[in-house]
Amino acid sequence: MSLKNLGDISYFRLNNEINRPVDGQIPLHKDKEALKAFFEENVLPNTKPFDSITDKIQFLIDHDYIEAAFIGKYRPEFIEELMAELKAADFHFQSFMAAYKFYQQYALKTNDGEAYLEGIEERVLFNALYFADGNEDLARDLAQEMISQRYQPATPSFLNAGRSRRGELVSCFLIQVTDDMNAIGRSINSALQLSRIGGGVGISLSNLREAGAPIKGFAGAASGVVPVMKLFEDSFSYSNQLGQRQGAGVVYLDVFHPDILSFLSTKKENADEKVRVKTLSLGVTIPDKFYELARNNEDMYLFSPYTIEKEYGVPYNYINISDKYDELVANPNITKTKIRARDLETEISKLQQESGYPYVINIDTANRANPVDGRIVMSNLCSEILQIQKPSEINDAQEFVTMGMDISCNLGSTNVVNMMTSPDFGKSIAAMTRALTFVTDSSNIEAVPTIKHGNAQAHTFGLGAMGLHSYLAKNHIEYGSPESIEFTDIYFMLLNYWTLVESNHIARERQETFADFGQSKYADGTYFDKYVTGQFVPKSERVKELFADHFIPQAEDWEALRQAVMKDGLYHQNRLAVAPNGSISYINDVSASIHPITQRIEERQEKKIGKIYYPAHALSTDTIPYYKSAYDMDMRKVIDVYAAATEHVDQGLSLTLFMRSEIPQGIYEWKTENKQTTRDLSILRNYAFNKGIKSIYYIRTFTDDGDEVGANQCESCVI
Fold first, then answer.
1. Which of the following is catalytic: 19, 118, 362, 382?
2. Structure confidence at residue 301 (pLDDT)
3. pTM for this predicted structure
């Protein structure tokens, strides 16, 4: 038997039987049977045996599967000891989906694809050894965090750590284009290079002059942002790792840019093929002023980036439109056009209904909360990365006259369910911070100098969370309830506190801070003002009970941290971000990110396999009332939970809104009919803005067709 010729297998059939209720009961035991069969029929017969981990490692090095350098930093005896500890942890996947995902997507296989060369313990071992960089104590701590599934590195890191033939460890990249042909050409090359090494790429086009703007020295006029979007889409389609995956990119444009309507129209289903973008994602940056104008039903002016840069001497992205709006309107040197604000708001909602796009970045909200000197101008492919950028200046020789700062995203996630059982929350976060620091320190994107420079200056990462809904349901707490909001508030406060503590430790050890630390709100201590009041502590009896075994910093602890940071600084410019982390959450057997589940028994279509069913974490008679589908939930509850986390997250959170095309009665008080309308989306976007939400990712709309009957549709089945 081999992985390419498995013969008679039963695990897919057993897993599919979950979707066939028996006497009104969902047969969850069938998933356990599928899991057992998967190991008996697939994993165990097709895993290459070795006498010891030392023998296995030697084989992997000799045959160019893993790098020798990181292994050579440790004593062989230590590696044997650590592997024994990992085996003693007695790890078991809790669902068929978790095991299947790991072995299909993450486990190292032989070159011919015939056999597995590692299980979860070996993948954790290589991650721990790689990220600890020779530090045995840290390697042991990281191994425990990962095998206990308290820490999950992002997919690129977890997949590639230690492998000799690998992609980058970072997740995605952000670049901005300035208004000249040299910058456009350079950014297209950057997109090609970044897509080649495997990351999603975010691009800001707001600085580009609008269609019809003059071009110095030419009789013609500029073509605007749409043709540039097409160039980027073609670049991503071409640079796809030899066809292994679709290149992924998102382009952002400010809503006060004159090309905003043509930008949005590129995603419409009936758009002309000459302008339609099929695979490129769209995002908009929205200043506060837009919400004010739409609320008051006023006209809005769109401002020419060409004349703004000519008048103010800085690219469009670096003008605060909300502050300077009236000045820009009154200035005769600024070319402008007029539209109705509510017409644009409706266009955004229409497109979100039709396609889920555009993503929304509340850019002034993000910058108000930004403790670092500089300006946030855009986000990434999943809308959770919000970091400062600086523009570049490039001459005709394609040389950098001024080296700007762009962004690479180094991500990881805590598992809320398991973190809450950590014997030492602070020690857990310290180990994760060290692992992520290694990723940012070792990242070196030579092909894109602005990414390399930005990473070297900022030392950023983004630690987030997954499994929030799983934890709440397991503890009989309704998602969106006051207790769930309070729990989220305290959990993310702890992430913030302990990453600050460890970043301060690293700065003190290395005698180094991120660039321009001295101009930040950390350096003058004002960042800590809200924390030294002592307001961020559990208040309800239920949340006090949940955090009873964990240290909760009081006002005096925050004051001590403030003094330490003001004295020795922080190594990392940014530390927290919550990604969607959909795929990797399956391996952790918990709900993705911090949003609600969509189905109690999730149905996934796998290539060449068909449907696989995935029951929610700890689904049982006791927990089923607390696993309400996101599609049947008031999205204001989701926004409230995200707002509680946002209070403590220095970057962003990937917030998806889940809507039905036919909205059940009673969810929204303003609804007089069931059909979803553009007004519903406009109201929710404004609610999110008023709650301090920095970004909104997809709008996902579920259409009921009534054709399929099973556990997915019958979510009220008793277990």
1. 382
2. 98
3. 0.96
Told to judge if 311 belongs to the known catalytic residues of this protein, a careful annotator would answer no
CA distance 340 to 298: 6
Dump pLDDT digits (tens) for 47-96.
Answer: 999 999 999 999 999 999 999 999 999 999 999 999 999 999 999 999 99
Q: Is the dihedral of CA 193, 196, 198, 203 positive or negative?
A: positive
Query: Are 359 and 698 in contact, with CB atoms under 8 Å apart?
Result: yes
**What three-state secondary structure class fits 332?**
coil
Active site residue 382: yes
Does domain 172-407 match CATH 3.20.70.20? Answer: yes
**Cβ distance 561 to 388 under 8 Å?**
no
Q: How many helices and strands in the chain, by DSSP H and E?
A: 26, 20
List all residues 6 or more positions away from 695 whose beta carbon is below 8 Å from its beta carbon. Answer: 359, 360, 361, 362, 366, 379, 383, 384, 386, 652, 653, 654, 655
Q: How far apart are CA 589 and CA 415, in angstroms?
A: 10
Q: Give the pLDDT band of residue 292 (cuts 50, 70, 90).
A: very high
Left if phi > 0, otherwise alpha if psi is -120 to 50, otherwise beta: which for 297? Answer: left
Neighbours of 431 (CB within 10 A): 27
Residue with tokens 């973008």: 277
| Beta bridge partners of residue 393, listed in sequence order | 402
Rounded CA separation 391/395 (Å)? 13
N- to C-terminal Cα distance for the chain? 37
DSSP one-letter string for 104-156: IIIS-B-TTSSSB---HHHHHHHHHHHHHTT-HHHHHHHHHHHHTTSEEE-HH
Does residue 49 have a cis peptide bond before it, meaning omega lies within 30 degrees of 0? no
Three-state SS for 287?
coil
Residue of 122, 384, 502, 603 marked catalytic: 384
**CA neighbor of 431 nearest in space, from 505, 366, 324:** 505
CA distance 622 to 601: 16
CA of residue 645 relative to chain centroid, distance = 14
Active site residue 380: yes
- Strands 281-285 and 359-361 come out as parallel
Nearest to 596 by CA among 665, 659, 546: 659
Distance, C-alpha 378 to centroid of its chain: 14
380, 581, 588, 712: which one is catalytic? 380
pLDDT, greater one: 534 or 222: 534
Helix (H, G, I), strand (E, B) or coil at 204: strand
Rg (CA), the chain: 26
